[in-house]
Amino acid sequence: MACLQRKGLQARILTSEEKEKLQSDQALVSDFKQQKLENEAQKNWDLFYKRNSTNFFKDRHWTTREFEELKSCREFEGQKLTLLEAGCGVGNCLFPLLEEDLNIFAYACDFSPRAVEYVKVLKPGKNVLFRDYGLYDHTMLRFKASSKLGENFYVRQDGTRSYFFTEEFLTRLFVGSGYEEVVNEYVFRETVNKKEGLCVPRVFLQGKFRRPPRDLSTAALYHQAGDCISP
Ligand SMILES: C[S@@+](CC[C@H](N)C(=O)[O-])C[C@H]1O[C@@H](n2cnc3c(N)ncnc32)[C@H](O)[C@@H]1O
């Protein structure tokens, strides 16, 4: 198994087969079902952890490579770094970080009662580090017909939902709320299994946004809601 990675501002170019598949899957899940999924989002994630316990997501050992701020933001050696992970799940992102760096203090929150939940108001002048599914990720193209909730928004069999972010949407979200955009780009990875002749195109959207220091509500936050195939 080999893994190739590149980054870019443009979305992945689809093959004609992939385009056709997306165009033929335009029917949306009914309003009633959408509302039910929204109301039951917390319950569905909680049931997900009941079924999978800590066995679903792989530990994410790439966070300090992708977000070098996690190391370089310190003003002096040994300075304690405080961060918040929103949607921490069972800690596949946090625990490798805490193991690697003893000077990290982390708050974590997740709406599944099976996950640890803490809340913290964060200090000024820090960054929001973002990583989630990107447009046309392999998993987006694998959704069956009648799983579509809206543009780039899909539901799995178990009721958990996935949104596939575009670079433009993330810019609107953060810049519209007063953040400065530092980085906002697609991360393209290809998982190649030579034996089986398979090449799986993974796409993530990765961003860094900074709240101008004058705003006291600035956050230092890491958000990751990617899926089970960790880069
Ligand atoms: C795909 S998992 C990722 C977990 C973890 N960040 C990781 O990297 O392994 C997404 C997590 O986000 C949580 N989540 C989804 N929507 C949420 C919300 N509105 N509020 C709090 N947590 C949420 C889910 O319960 C789930 O644990």
Describe this entry's structure for a reader.
- The protein has helices at residues 16-24, 31-39, 41-52, 63-66, 69-72, 94-100, 138-142, 167-175, and strands at 2-8, 81-86, 104-109, 127-133, 148-150, 153-155, 161-163, 180-193, 198-210, 221-224.
- The strands form 2 sheets. It has a 7-stranded mixed sheet with strand order 1-8-9-4-10-2-3.
- The two termini are 12 Å apart.
- By secondary structure, it is α/β, with parallel strands linked by helices.
- The relative contact order is 0.23.
- The protein has one domain.
- The chain contains 8 helices and 10 strands.
- It binds S-adenosylmethionine.
- S-adenosylmethionine (SAM) binds at residues 45, 57, 60, 87-89, 92-93, 110-112, 115, 224-225.
- This is Methyltransferase-like protein 6 isoform X4.
- It comes from Octodon degus.
What is the compact description of this entry?
The chain has 231 residues and is α/β, with parallel strands linked by helices. 26% of the residues lie in helices and 29% in strands.
How does the overall form come out from the CA principal axes? globular
Count of helical regions: 8
Q: Count all strands and give the number.
A: 10
Number of domains: 1
What portion of the residues fall into strands of 2 or more residues? 25-35%
Helices and strands: which structural class?
alpha/beta
What is the end-to-end distance? 12 Å
**What is bound: which ligands?**
S-adenosylmethionine
Strand order of the largest sheet: 1-8-9-4-10-2-3
The helix/strand series, from N terminus to C terminus, equals EHHHHHEHEEHEEEHEEE
Low-confidence stretches: 215-231
Q: In this structure, how is the largest beta sheet organized?
A: 7 strands, mixed
Family: Belongs to the methyltransferase superfamily. METL family.
Keywords: Methyltransferase, S-adenosyl-L-methionine, Transferase, tRNA processing
Organism: Octodon degus
GO molecular function: RNA methyltransferase activity; S-adenosylmethionine-dependent methyltransferase activity
